Fold this sequence. Notes:
Strand order of the largest sheet of chain B: 4-11-12-13-10-16
Bound molecules: flavin-adenine dinucleotide, iron/sulfur cluster
Number of helices of chain A: 6
Largest interface: A-B, 34 and 43 residues
Number of strands of chain A: 4
Distance between the termini of chain A: 40 Å
Helix content of chain A: 25-40%
Low-confidence stretches of chain B: none
Structural class of chain A: alpha+beta
Oligomer: heterodimer
Mean pLDDT of chain A: 91
Radius of gyration of chain B: 22 Å
Strand content of chain A: 5-15%
Order of helices and strands of chain A: HEEEEHHHHH
Strand order of the largest sheet of chain A: 1-2-3-4
Radius of gyration of chain A: 18 Å
Order of helices and strands of chain B: EHEHEHHHHEHEEEEEHEEEHHEEEHEEH
Low-confidence stretches of chain A: 1-7
Largest sheet of chain A: 4 strands, antiparallel
Number of helices of chain B: 12
Mean pLDDT of chain B: 97
Shape of chain A: globular
Amino acid sequence: MTLKQKGISRRQLLAGSVAAGAAFVVGAGFVAAPTAAWAMEVSHLQPATMATLIQMARDIYPHDHVADEYYAAAVKGYDTAEAAPGIEAGITALDAAARGKGHPSYLGTGWERDRVDILRGMEESAFFQAIRGGLVTGLYNQKAVWPLFGYEGESYSKGGYIDRGFNDINWI
Amino acid sequence: MTAPFELTDDSVVVVIGTGAGGGVLANELAQKGVSVVALEAGGRYLPEDYVNDEWESFGQLAWLDKRTTSGDWRVARDFSGLPAWIVKAVGGTTTHWAGASLRFQPHEFKTKTTYGNVQGANLLDWPIDLAEMEPWYEKAEAKLGVTRTGDRAGLPGNNNFKVLEAGAKALGYKEVHTGRMAINSADYDDRLACQQTGFCFQGCKWGAKWSAAYTDIPRGEATGNLEVRERAHVLKIEHDASGKVTGVLYADKDGNQHLQNARIVCVAGNSIESPRLLLNSASAMFPDGLANSSGQVGRNYMRHMTGSVYAVFDKPVRMWRGTTMAGIVQDEARHDPSRGFVGGYELETLALGLPFMAAFLDPGGWGREFTTALDSYENMAGMWIVGEDMPQETNRITLNHDALDQYGLPAPNVHFDDHPNDVAMRAHAYRQGIAIYEAVGATRTFPTPPYPSTHNLGTNRMSENPRDGVVNRWGQTHDIANLFVSDGSQFTTGAAENPTLTIVALAIRQADHIAGQMSQGTL
Ligand SMILES: Cc1cc2nc3c(=O)[nH]c(=O)nc-3n(C[C@H](O)[C@H](O)[C@H](O)COP(=O)(O)OP(=O)(O)OC[C@H]3O[C@@H](n4cnc5c(N)ncnc54)[C@H](O)[C@@H]3O)c2cc1C
Ligand code: SF4
């Protein structure tokens, strides 16, 4: 999963887009970080839908030391002709649930605890379960994410850990 | 070297499945000069093919054919299409297994006598005992190169073990060591010593862990007496008017069907597929399935009382480094009803990589309660609980006529409800596991629910009396003299120990019996 770095400046980016919550900017056909650190093109989903989906992914599996681009990569696969209608419907329902609790939209809900409260309300829905289930592999099976948790992955090519600390614990 | 036998050759022994039971049986028969055709649904993967990547390896090796679930076990909710974690490949689940190789305790062959009447449990004594099995265990240990048996040394302890050991000793446990493992602590039997790579569940790329895939299977083939047909999925066992089995119908990799004739058929497809095959082979003569006059085919499904305890510490453990399961506490394996349950359990180290930890720590869990646990992944230690579960007639494999597999055959439904004894034992084991880690400073502990079943047992059980079970003391079906069961489905009861050493010992013993009967002309 690669995210396209767009060759645009932060100012250009912000000029053609609107802030979606605090975390994202969305423009025609893309979602990006306010810092322009990463941007993702979308071709089937509304950019605002993708931005909401990325936030939802983070709220389901929040890791403060894992940047948005990994969550974006985890849900990028939903940007297909087949998946898009279901995702649009699910995010529409999510926004409606947010409004039902007095917020402008899901992304416009400032506190994580309020967003989690909205998610709890739809926890049993097929949409929520599909997104959550997909993230278990979509997020945690990204090799780029593993080092952020200290996990070292493949070890055979390095000769295993026999000389690399299989028993190096020093506090026990 | 492989010996191609004709489909019409009715002098061969057909072995269905090439895992711990079938792979060993096929080789042992071939070594004795018996002609064997082994039919294996999966493909052939060797150490160079294995991948140090949990999901990729799972996709390469796991049995993913259609299955359904029911019952009160949490697996039915969290993994409804995946009741069991077993392998479809030459060598079977011995590619995935961790290698823990323990003998049964004497009383575990005699649970009905020892435990008495346990309400709701279909307990039965095995028709064999430990004294009879001892020489076969010894042969099995030598074959597998089990550490701490014979003159084989134990493995060195990794980080995960050191945490377990310190906690267990602080609690006063005495039988704490790096296990009896089918993993080489020194070069043995043309296989390397363990390099502590830590992907034992994904197939050992060094061949340090015993697997039938690269030991028994090629050795059997080298005799010229064994032909292993891979990607050959057996659909049905055929019989004649006298009620003897005559051969098996199988589908090759392209889906073309063939009939392989046989003098003897041995079923070793693991405890879900073996009874399913017998049930799917029902005929006018055997309307309830083959070898099912007792009605016990598919019943008494056992999966061991399992669970895990993970714990987070304030400092790194890096449990994934080194052997996945080389560490054990055996003090609770005894039968001691004063604890509130019959039978006992073992505590064994277990490590999962980050991808599997995310899937199995708390299936369905989400939010910060879940993610803060994974944030401390580097500081985690883990153990697996494996104890004796009660055989229950209603825990069973049945044919689900509403769910068909890729060949149009009814898929197996796996029904499982915990017995109150299982629940009481699990609660005790969680408490002890948590106490072990708290004794060395755990800041948070996780009593983790059972995974899809890795130990599948009991669905064609062994009995003295044909009324009580499916096979006799040799694994020969009570009803059909030339039909045998050669895998863990023979288990009368499950014992606390990991099952594979016993499956292998029974297979070596069965090969001896079959070859003997063949040469005497009684089979
Ligand atoms: C992750 C993991 C860890 C484990 N760790 C341990 C451990 O440490 N110690 C221990 O004792 N046990 C362990 N086990 C369990 C052990 O692997 C099994 O007990 C053992 O392999 C079972 O042997 P078996 O012969 O019954 O079946 P298997 O080894 O599963 O072999 C059955 C074979 O039959 C084939 N088959 C099935 N149906 C058909 C058909 N219709 N036609 C043709 N072929 C068919 C399958 O493809 C498979 O290859 C572990 C299992 C797993 C998954
Ligand atoms: S830890 Fe040892 S046994 Fe396990 S895969 Fe690595 S080398 Fe093989």
